[in-house]
Each structure stands twice: as structure tokens, then as C-alpha cells.
Amino acid sequence: MSEPNLFEQSPVYRMACDQLRDVAGLIDLDPNIAERLAVPKRSLVCAIPIKMDNGETEVFIGYRVQHSLTSGASKGGLRYSPHVDIGEVAALAMWMSWKCGIMNLPYGGAKGGIACDPATMSLGEKERLTRRFTEEVLPIIGPRTDVMAPDMGTDEQTMAWIYDTYSMKIGYACPEIVTGKPVELGGCIGRREATGRGVVFCIREALAELKIEPHEATAVVQGFGNVGSVTCEELAKHGTKVIAVGDRYGSIRNTNGIDVAALIRYVNADARKSVVGFPGAEAIADADLLTTPCTVLVPAAMERQITKENAAKLKCRILAEGANGPTTPEADALLSGSDIFVIPDILCNAGGVTVSYFEWVQDIQQLMWSHTQVNEKLRELMLDAFHRVRKMSKDRGIPMRMAALGLGVKKVAIEKQRRGLFP
User: Fold this and answer.
1) CA angle, residues 365, 371, 375, in degrees to nearest 5
2) What is the 3-state secondary structure (H, E, C) of 130-144?
3) What does pTM read for this prediction?
């Protein structure tokens, strides 16, 4: 691999590179291709000055990283988070490349971020921030170049602002510039629920393999944003009892089962946006959430939540990674020697980018699909990917994560090799 670069200050990026190194030998990856895959194709860092509601000007830092453009347009979310940095964004872009490879999507991986706290900003401030960021990244985005989507701290409204800003610049409506936008603007029915729904498709396959009925299972979910809340909702629909949930503000537990529908109403009421104080459960320490005994544990929040310090304390049968990079390599080594069935992130949470692909195709064709068509196609592709990863895991006697990485990296590597290296 190459000499240390500006991304390697981030532990998340180092983690992504460690995974790439580990899988390189497994798939006999050409060292020259590995060298190229370890460093993003293109990165942009920009200052985003905006006028705040109090009249003062504040300058935020924004990032857009395109890991690969070999397979097609780069694809990936845009997150607003106080702690986002260039290394984290680069790691997420790399994982997105492998994710698109596993799902056989004609995309490379990308990611964007702005270092800000959207919870403290007004709607007007977020709109000005989003439109100025779009202006700054205009030279490197486009429906055939780089397509953004919502992520942590952003939503369909964010995408609507990007869509409008880009369209105003080019002089015509271009809905295919982003995915995850409102249905009224060409968004795909079912896109918001897609990641959580894909997580549950994978969980149900794992339960079936372990011969555990959904109604006999219990679940603990870390994170109650888009992915976590939809995962809880879908699990409850299939009879699985959600017994503990946590978010950035705190964690709650009810061993008899949490009323998920009531919790969603509670969180959405009066802009509360937190599970803390929900009357249908007791408060618990955040450290106790991940170690609560359960059938299925779903980390659906931030990276690096399962570490060497707490991995041995997990009391779940299935670990379904709804978040990106929730398990550190050190923790992964400990889990590989346990009986925990790990559904790795690049497979487990691939439903979001898959339905984003459906949305992009519909916008290009100007032909929209029904909710049933979207869900059936998502289920088909998720189950196909799950079983391909599972087969490689069994055939090679390797952990699910290595099998998933092997399939994803190999697809991108073959395409790079076939295209060659431009002089």
C-alpha cells in the first residue's frame, strides 16, 4: 500500500484500509489494483460560509469524496455531523464501493459531509448551508458523475434543495442528480424505508438458517433515526419483540417488549426526536444497551461502537450491522471465534443504495414504479446478495464479513483490471 496520506489520521479510514488489506490475500488481489483501491479517486474540501439567523457569518467545512468512478457514477450519502472529517468520509466512500459491488449496481462509492450540528440549526440555516455546499461541489457532481443521497443529519428536504440548486444552474429540471428526494419531485416510493427494510430481510434469512421463528426472537436496536426506527417497525410487524432502543441522548429497555408504534409517535411529537423519557420503558445506561441479552442486536448509529472492550460482552445470537463500520477490526477478531452470526454492514444496510438505484433509473426513464414493484425487487436483490455471501462464507470457511468484502472488492478490482490504467 502507499505511504501515509491525509486520510489516515482517521481511525475509521485506517479500519477500512485494514479490511482491504485483509481481503486482498483471500481473493489474490493484484497489488497494483490494491494500491489504487486504497486511495480515493477524487476528494474535495470546501469552506461553506453562510449567514446565520442572528446575522453573523459562520464558516463550515464540507467534504465530498469519490472513491471510484470505474463502475459508473459514484454514489453515496451526504451527512451533517459535528465530528465528520475527511478520513471518515473517505472510509464511507470506500465501503460504498464494496456495497455497490456486492449488489451488482453500476456505481462506484462516494460520500459527503459537512461538519455541523443540524440539531442546533434552523430550517433556513440548513437550506442556506445545503445550497452553498451544492454550489461548491458543482464541478464534480452530475447524474452520470456523482449522485448524492440522504445520510445522518440529512433527509429528503435536503435532497430537494440540492436538486433545485443544481437544476437552476443547468437550466432544466434534473431529478436524477440526487436520490432520496420527496416523491412529489421524482423520489421513489419506499426509499425512506429501504435501508431498514433491507436489514430486516437479512435478519429473517439469518433467523431461518438458525431455525428461530421471528415471533420467538427479541431485538435490541442502537439508533432510532431513519434506519433504526424502520428496522424496529419492520421487526415488530413480523412478530419480533423489540426490548431495548437507544439514540444519541440515551437508552431505554422493556423486557416485555416496547410498543414500537407508540415510541415512534412519542419521538416525533413536538420535535422531541429522542427516545428518552418514553413512558413505556425504563431508562438504562448507554453502556448496557449493546450488552442486553437478545436474539438480534442491530447497531444502527455510528461507526466503531462494538470494540475490543465490549465485544466479548455481547449476548446476542445475530449481529445485524445497520450502521456503517460499527465493529472495529479488534472486535471482529473476537466475534469470529464466537457463535454470533454476523451480517456485515456492506451487505446488511445495502437496501438504501439499492432503492436509490431504482430511483435513479426511474428518473432517467421518467417511468415510476409502484410500491409493490420496489419492495419485491429490493427483496429479490437483497436475498440474492445474502445467499451469495453466505455461500462464499461456507465454501471458503471464512467469516461473513470477509466473504462480503471479497465479493465486493473483487467486482471492482476486475472492472479496474479490464479497463486498464490510463497513461
Assistant:
1) 100
2) HHHHHHHHHHHCECC
3) 0.94
Q: Are 284 and 278 a contacting pair, CB within 8 Å?
A: no
Mean pLDDT calculated for residue range 185-195: 95
Continuous H helices in 244-370: 260-268, 286-289, 329-335, 345-348, 351-365
Structure-model confidence comparison of residues 336 and 41, the more confident one: 41
Q: Which three cell numbers stand for residue 172?
A: 432544466
Q: pLDDT per residue over 27-59, tens digit each?
A: 999 999 999 999 999 999 999 999 999 999 999
Tens of pLDDT along 4-21? 678 988 999 999 999 999
Q: Quick check: helix, strand or coil at residue 252? A: strand
The closest alpha carbon to 229, from 215, 212, 216, 242, belongs to: 242
Q: Which residue has the cell 431495548?
A: 244
Residues 318-340 have a mean pLDDT of 94
Within 8 A by CB and 6+ apart from 298, the residues are 199, 203, 219, 220, 221, 222, 223, 228, 231, 320, 321, 322
Is 377 a catalytic site residue? Answer: no
Catalytic residue among 75, 111, 126, 411: 111
Share of the chain above pLDDT 90, in %: 96
Write down the residue that cell numbers 479490464 correspond to.
418
Q: Tell me how far apart the alpha carbons of residues 246 and 390 are, in angstroms, rounded to a whole number.
A: 29
Mean pLDDT of 160-173: 98
Q: Buried b vs exposed e over 38-65: b needs ≥16 C-beta within 10 Å?
A: bebbbbbeeebebeeeeeeeeebebbbb
Note whether 389 and 347 are within 8 A (CB): yes
Q: Which domains does the chain have, with CATH numbers?
A: 40-175 (3.40.50.10860), 193-348 (3.40.50.720)
Q: Which residues pair with 51 in a beta bridge?
A: 57
